Structures are given as C-alpha cells and as structure tokens.
Prior knowledge:
Elements: E1 42-48, E2 55-61, E3 69-74, E4 97-98, E5 106-107, E6 116-118, E7 120-121, E8 126-127, E9 130-138, E10 140-148, E11 179-180, E12 183-185, E13 198-200, E14 203-206, E15 209-211, E16 223-224, E17 246-253, E18 265-271, E19 275-281, E20 301-306, E21 309-310, E22 321-329, E23 336-340, E24 351-353, E25 355-359, E26 363-367, E27 377-384, E28 390-391, E29 395-400, E30 416-417
Antiparallel strand pairs: 1-2, 2-26, 3-22, 4-9, 5-6, 6-22, 7-8, 9-20, 10-17, 10-22, 11-14, 11-21, 12-13, 12-20, 14-15, 16-19, 17-18, 18-19, 23-24, 23-27, 25-26, 27-29, 28-30
Amino acid sequence: xxxxxxxxxxxxxxxHKLPKCVALLGSLPLVGMAPFVFAAPVPTGASGTLxxxxxxxxxxxxxGTQGPHIVLMEDFERDTxxxxxxxxxxxxGAWTGYNSSNTFLASPNAHTGKVGFHAFDYPxxxxxxxxxxxxxQYQEAFISYWVAIPAGKSFPGGLGPNSSPTPPGPxxxxxxxxxxxAWLVQGAGANSTASMFDLRTMDYGGPGMFQxxxxxxxxxxxxxxxxxxxxxxxxxxxxxxxxxWNRLTTWMRGxxxxxxxxxxxxQQTLNNQSGLSTWSFGNPVTYPTSxxxxxxxxxxxxxxNVPGWIRENSGPNxxxxxxDIYIAVxxxxxxxxxxTDSATYAGSKHATILRAINWSNTQVTAQIPxxxxxxxxxxxxxxxxxxxxxxxxxxxxxxxxxxxxxxQPDPPTNVTVR
Length: 418
C-alpha cells in the first residue's frame, strides 16, 4: 500500500489546529457485512486520499438515494484576521448580506486552518450577523458549526453570575439570555414577527441553560421524552467546554416531512472533552406541540442567520467565535459523510463533515474540507442517510498526522444511531 511522508509540526496551542499532514489512503477492499436490524447505512470500503481538499469514494449499501443539498460550507480561510470577512468565496455557497454596519472581523482563532470569525463587535457592542438568503422556500434544515470562547475571553451576556450588573468574566455563565447561535427566519433581516416563521437552532436562555429549537413566536421543537414546559427543552451546560471548540449540530424538519413514528430531528453537541451527546426532537404526531410549524405561521423558511443574535452590551471581553459552518436544506439535508477520531460514532470527540458531491444507495463521493481535519491518528468514516440513521461502528480509512499506512476497514456494527 502506498504511503506519504509528512513533517510532523507542533500542535497549535489553545484554539489553533493540529497539523494537517496526513497519510495517503490506499484503495480499500470491500468487507462483507453481517445482517443488520435496521436499514442504517453500511459503508464497507473507501478509496482516495486522506488530505484536505481531496476526494473519497465510499462504497457500501443502504445509503439511500437522497443526498444533501448543501447551500453553505464556510471556513473563513480566504479572509485575513483583523479584517472584514468576505461575503463571497466560501468553499460552497456565499453569504448574501451583513445585517448591520458592525465590524464583522475575521479572527486569528480557528477550529481548522488559521482563520475564524468574531461574531461580536467590540466597538459597537452588538452581534456581527451574517445573512444567508435562500433561493427557495424550505421545510428542512441541517446546520452544523463550531463555536468557542477563546482563552481569557468571555461568554456574551449583560449580567454576570447571580444577576451581577457586570458582564460575565472568563469561564462564567451570564444570568440573562445572551446568545442565539443560528436562526431560521421566513423574512429578511434579523428580526422576527409572530406572523412569520422563526426558529433558532440553539438558544442560551439563562444561567447555564441551553435550549434547542426555540422561537420568538412562542413554540419549540422539544427534546423527547419530555413535557411541554419551557424548561423541558433545557439540555444544560455540562456538554460545553471552555478549553477549545464545541460543535453544535441541529437537524429540524417540518411537520409534513416527518415519517410516522420518526423523530422530528435532533440536537447534537461535540467537543474534545465531553465527547458526543445527541437529543431527539419529538414526532409532531405524538408530540403535537413539539413541531417545526405551529400557530398558523407560514410553513417554510427563506433565510438563515449566523449568529442569530447576541446580547448587546456584553462588554469588551466578550468573544463568541465561529468556524467551519455547514448548512444543508430540503429533503436529504441530514445525509452526510463524516470522518471522526473514534471506532464508534458515539465515542467521537472530533468530527469533520465532508462535502457530498455524488450520492447513490451504494456509493458516495465526498470531498474533505480544504482546511483539513482537527485530529491526529486513525480516521474512521461514517455515513448518515436522509432519515438520520448512522452506522454505529466506523471503518478505519487512514492515519492523520502521521506516516503509517492506511489500515483495512473494520466491519460496522449492526445498530442504528440517531
């Protein structure tokens, strides 16, 4: 099997990245599979080069025929830290507007590569909101992004712990609602009205309380099981890490698009300390008040804002930072290929979503982001279909950050992961 040699570079400290040098991925033979209980994807082999910007061809079965419609993949690598981020030039898609005259500065702190995005404007004490106006009306979205509070910086918020009038310091949770991480809206701009659809993908709503899929119109997609009280939608803060990057992933689909008995979507968090956590949203039939569309609002969204909103006057030390944003919409939005650092999907502490280029039931072609992966060691491959089902056990497809040869794929386990 062919190998490459690459110089081992020092790990970047704090919020900077691991080296992007990788071993070449050889052509991997297919491996037979035992019968499985659910029709989850069964990747059995892959070929290509395990490096940033390179393509992998994944073989297997039960991938489904519906791949994702990716409208944005953003890594900010074309930008320069300290200068205004550009609307165009992302690896996939383009932003359509700045929501204000704020600074919109690129950050030297990055999840992968060298550049991220300051989502808060110090001089004007307000959010730097990027608008993504879509070309149509959609009822399903899959949104994933990495966020961090750089070392020595603070979570946004106007009130510190115990309602202190001073904004929170490093490592402190604010008392007030402070951050809406991304926002689906039916109209333009950043504001929502009760007569138009709006839904946030994650909302910091109070002291240590994170709420997925909340709305200004007074409804939400609730995690299951649970009741319909506001606090039933709280996933807490134990998943968060102050010492690095957090991936927040939300898949939400409208009432009419949810199969009978299936979840309405999911909320997922991931970082290198707490690992992977996943919550399912209730089905709109069994959880009638847990649904994407309610109260007579239009049954579609036309724009996605990142971030959705950040508390004004959060102080000069607030620095919520974004990188590696991935957005897919419409049927198949949840379908994806990921490379992680773990032989089981549930055990992952690092993960990268690839750009799906071609998709069929037995073969997927996907491109590794040009900024590379955020981990070293063996990389494991996972495929998720449009129903949100993922192979629980990954196939090892090569070594990141070293010179060892690619290893043979392990057969996936036969359990469905949502």
